[in-house]
Amino acid sequence: MPEAAQRELTFAQAVREALAEEMRRDSRVCIFGEDVAEAGTPFKVLAGLVEEFGAERVLDTPISEAGFTGMGVGAAMTGLRPVVDIMFGDFLTLTMDQMVNQAAKVHYMSGGTWKVPMVLRTTLGATRRSAAQHSQSLHAWLSHVPGLKVVMPSTPYDAKGLLKTAIRDENPVVFFEDKMMFKLKGPVPVEEYTIPFGVADIKRQGEDITIVATSSMVQVALGAAELLEKIGISAEVIDPRTTWPLDEKTLIESAKKTSRAMVVDEGYGRYGVTGEIASVIAEGAFYNLEAPVKRMGAMHVPIPFSPPLEDVTVPTDQTIFEAARALCGKE
Amino acid sequence: MTTVTDKSNTKSNTQVEKWIRTYRRMVMIRLFEEQVNELYTRALMPGLAHLYVGEEAVAVGICEALNPTDYITSTHRGHGHCLAKGASPDRMFAELLGKEAGYCRGKGGSMHIADPATGNLGANAIVGGSTGIATGAALSSKRLRTGQVAVCFFGEGALGQGVLYEVMNLAALWKLPVIYVCENNLYTEYTHYSETTAGDILARGTAFGVQAEAVDGQDVRAVNAIAQKLVDRARKGEGPAFLLCNTYRYTGHHVGDINREYYRSKQEEQEWKTKRDPIKNLAEWLISEKLADAAGLTAIETEVRAEMKSAVEFAIAAPYPGVEEVEQDVYA
Known about the structure:
The structure holds two protein chains of two kinds.
Chain A (H helix, E strand, L loop, with lengths): L7 E3 H15 L3 E5 L15 H5 L4 E3 L4 H13 L3 E5 L6 H12 L2 H4 L9 E6 L14 H5 L5 E3 L4 H13 L4 E6 L6 E3 L13 E4 L4 E5 L2 H15 L4 E5 L2 E3 L3 H11 L2 E8 L4 H13 L8 E5 L8 H5 L5 H11 L4
Parallel strand pairs in A: 2-3, 2-4, 4-5, 5-7, 6-7, 10-11, 10-13, 13-14
Antiparallel strand pairs in A: 1-8, 6-12, 9-11
Helix pairs in contact in A: 1-7, 3-4, 8-12, 9-10
Chain B lengths: L14 H27 L14 H8 L7 E3 L5 H6 L4 H8 L34 H14 L5 E6 L6 H12 L4 E7 L2 E2 L2 E2 L10 H4 L4 E6 L3 H16 L5 E6 L19 H10 L2 H11 L5 H24 L15
Parallel strand pairs in B: 1-2, 2-3, 3-7, 6-7
Antiparallel strand pairs in B: 4-5
Helix pairs in contact in B: 1-2, 1-10, 1-11, 2-8, 4-11, 5-6
């Protein structure tokens, strides 16, 4: 990246820029969902798109997640490249038949004859005081299903490059944005770029412990790594960026190098992404590990409303710091 | 690969040819399903199949009103829709037997036949599962200005699925060229539809401002006439329609559903078969109008029967996919 081209965008601006660029590049790209046009979504991520591309390509829908997600599948099969907007990740439950039984299976069931080049963009993340039905991180559900790809950007740079890749992909892609990161700023070059799926990014080099973190938890893990440095522990923070395809090699190599690993993810801990990644590391790096792989996810409770209750349900830099310190055997 | 040439693929404007083609295709569906049942009873077919026998006039009457490039979505009881839209029986049978020569390379089976070449977006084993797909295809057609119409076939059982109402609302709002074809064969699996369906079925369309019509689904000429009207209307940009076709499922919910007396009488089945058979009715009309004679129609049946036989033989002889294919086409 040339230095002169460096500029800062928020996560939301990076997402919007990716969409706008892809819509300019390819007239088949369209977006539909609840309040995506004039309102630009409640998070204002899509502000300005309807003004540039018109109501034919930026379509407000009724509150019918199953219906318009299913239409996304059909539209993708027949020549459009729809981006379906599901305002809160919790509403994915309403789209599950369309995503799991239709989008994910059309290509395989049809013997490779039909394709579903569709993106479903949605949110995850707690601590916004939105209670149990607007705070979940359900990406593990979709990562479980063959036929889907699942993307979890953690920086504005990654959000833009990965979303452009998602829109150009020939498969159904689920793109999770942490709603607490929309205002996060970071460098995003002016020049065109894309980021391939299945390539993890080492967000911070380290020697003593590998912290694999996804989406929102990457920033939190980087905060924990700062705290760890102060007590002499060098943490390597790795962001897989896509939970499927998963860059198993980079995760395993890092764990072999540091000999200790933990996995931090904002989904529920039980039967989730942390369990999957921890077992990938355990299977791949077992003989190099000096401690069991540690998992940290959201507590196994519905996300509560009351702030002091909600705050303890998800990992923080402090809890990651303490777990990493214990894993490294430091008092 | 194709061993059967479906002569009914050739379109013609003359009335005689149109109705002979229609007759032939209905006979083809019936004899195809006879063979499917035979494959099941001889234990040559893995799994189950849901037969379309008795409902042939719906699929054929509607698909006769469509262009080859128009789209359809189908159901678990989908063989008739696929054949009516132009699928060839040999590749259909091959798919039913899980063979590589099948439409889905053996990965879909009876309930998932799909074929881009004939505009078949796929049969669907989730009841109501393809309503979104058909409506999305209509959105593509409108946005890309291709003039294509999408037909969404479903049984009356799908009236219980909420997604149908979500997409009908959207199709009406956006004036999409989609036709929702409800085949009421009276039985939602093993339960009479009156036990599962409240109110007026047509009102479920008109509530959204969707043009709703009902037709005798055993009368292929009536089905075709109304379908032609609704397809023309959709193609002109006048919006979606809901077409209720009243029909009857001659056989069980699936090939293994043999003893049906606990949910319907043999007498009822017999009445439909003798008095309201769509193929018999069309044959009588063709003869009375002097568009065909009995010998000519028998010749068609003999010919189609031979075609089905050779298509089945093709499928039985066809190889299974290699196991290395199991991980192919998960992703495009």
